[in-house]
Write a structure and sequence with these properties.
Residues 3-186 form the Ketoreductase domain. This protein is an alpha/beta fold and 246 residues long. It has helices spanning 13-24, 36-41, 57-70, 96-122, 140-143, 149-155, 157-168, 195-203, 213-223, and strands at residues 4-8, 28-33, 48-51, 76-79, 132-136, 174-180, 234-238. The chain contains nine helices and seven strands. Helix 1 (13-24) packs across helix 9, helix 3 (57-70) packs parallel to helix 4 (96-122) and helix 4 (96-122) packs parallel to helix 6 (149-155).
């Protein structure tokens, strides 16, 4: 049976790998992202694309209208939008406290608010029973990110997912979080990283390799399957053992 899949941040990295996994099943996929040209180049067979800033309620409302018009029901909602904020405009002045406020606001809007607004806008369209809501967190939510802001923003998704699982469970809808470790071939690190830093991150794993977008996409794909129908309010780590389970 063909399902309707909505993926934010679906033009690159983990979101794109996830979109391809669902499209390979013959599912109908809607890709959301801020950059229309990136979505158009994604090349996911049969996918719909829509450019929107999911931090803005007005643009999320437009997404909801599009979903109602083109899909009707959402079987799987995947929140892959987010980032470290390195690609965002910097604070407008040099005051240290202003820079802190700016960094934390950007991290929250990119990683938490995008997911919350889209979920709240589409929750009444989730298939019941059988709907799935899947959030992308990070290993940083467990161990910090160096700056604090990104880790805190991702960690904020965890209690929201638990609350949402309780709220939607009676409708036969599950809610889960996937927390990746170091994943290569994404836009997360902007211009890239040094070989020394990469080596350190790989050395932290038990598997001796960096993660790939497909590793996370496969986990999301399985959580959206009937086989995972009794799994909800869980945080699944995909990091090669770099961080142990909690």
């Amino acid at each position: 049976m063909t399902r309707n899949i909505v993926i934010s941040g679906g033009g690159t990295g983990i979101g794109l790998a996830t979109a391809r996994a669902f499209a390979a099943d013959g599912d109908r996929v809607l890709l959301l992202g801020r950059r229309a040209e990136v979505l158009e180049k994604a090349g996911v067979p049969g996918a719909l694309t829509h450019a929107a800033d999911l931090t803005e309620p007005a643009e999320v409302r437009e997404v909801a209208r599009l979903v109602a018009r083109e899909l009707g029901t959402v079987d799987v909602l995947v929140h892959s939008a987010g980032g470290s904020g390195t690609l965002e405009p910097q604070a407008g002045n040099a005051d240290p406290l202003d820079r802190v406020a700016h960094a934390w606001t950007v991290a929250f809007r990119l990683n938490t608010l995008t997911a919350v607004l889209l979920t709240e806008a589409l929750q009444e369209r989730l298939a019941e029973p059988g709907g799935r809501v899947l959030f992308l967190s990070s290993i940083a939510a467990y161990r910090g990110s160096g700056s604090g802001a990104y880790a805190a923003a991702k960690a904020g998704l965890h209690p929201y997912a638990h609350d949402l699982a309780r709220r939607l469970g009676h409708r036969g809808i599950t809610v889960n979080v996937v927390a990746p470790g170091y994943i290569e071939d994404t836009d997360f690190f902007g211009g890239g990283m040094s070989e020394e830093r990469r080596g350190q991150l790989v050395a932290e794993t038990s598997t001796g390799r960096a993660g790939e977008p497909g590793d996370v996409a496969s986990t999301l794909h399985w959580l959206a399957s009937p086989a995972a129908g009794h799994i909800t309010s869980q945080i699944i780590q995909v990091n090669g053992g770099a961080e142990r389970g909690h």
